[in-house]
Amino acid sequence: MSGNGDAVVAAVERVAERIEAERDHLTQLDSAIGDADHGGNMARGWAAAADAAHDLDDRDPETVAKTVGKTLMSEVGGASGPLFGGSLVFAGAELEGGVTAETAVAFAETYLEKVTDRGDARVGDVTMVDALTPAVHTFKKSIETDDRPPLEALARAVDAAERGVAFTVPLRARKGRASYLGWRSVGHQDPGATSTLFILEELLETAADRLDEPIPDVDATSPTIPDEETDGTDADGTNSKVDAEGDS
């Protein structure tokens, strides 16, 4: 289990480095539709989280995840602290038995549930949920239904998240500061979805390094997306075009 914990710490340190490198980019994105503080807040929070994780004597995955979550809650301002950090504290409990494919799926599902509940956001609201939802659904399906290797499943999740980030650009924001802009929010990439993608990319890089395997070249698009003769709306009112891409 200590090896699992060391891997989680390594992932946190990589995320902190990536967010710091992307600080100006995230600030620029947030300047267009928010308070221009997402880059600075996230960089400060993840730097503190990496220090806190590094200093832990007990590096079991659950402890690392909860420590990182609590640190983000205290160091990241605005709504991002509770969303990223508070949700991580709850999801960390799923890693009590170490990091396996099964506990990783449980962790991802719990994290998404808490983020969705805390932010009261759904896909299409132009938030981090637009990147996180397709990533989690894709990861779960890849592991539990398609029996993909964990690294491939994670690579597919990252691809799905990247599509989710692009999905936010042409939409009108319905949550957060960006929603105050109304139609002026259209055409802007969501900073929270973008930082979520960066985090997932670093988790994938860490996993590939630990497994000493190359990152697979994957495509998360589902082959079962409805054809152009349908509008993608199922009998239950859900949009299967969105669900199909997210659940691949």
From TrEMBL:
Concerning InterPro entries, the annotation shows: DhaK_L_YcgS (IPR012737), DhaL_dom (IPR004007), DhaL_dom_sf (IPR036117), Dihydroxyacetone_Kinase (IPR050861)
Q: Does the keyword GTP-binding apply?
A: no
Q: Which Gene3D superfamilies match?
A: 1.25.40.340
Superkingdom of source? Archaea
| GO molecular function (one) | phosphoenolpyruvate-glycerone phosphotransferase activity
Quote the SUPFAM superfamilies the UniProt record gives.
DhaL-like (SSF101473)
Stretch list, region Disordered: 209-248
Give UniProt keywords alphabetically. Kinase, Transferase
Fetch the Pfam families from UniProt: Dak2
Q: What is its EC number?
A: 2.7.1.121
Enzyme's top EC category: transferase
Q: Where does the record place the DhaL domain?
A: 6-205
Q: What is this protein called?
A: Dihydroxyacetone kinase subunit DhaL
Q: Which organism is it from?
A: Halorubrum tibetense
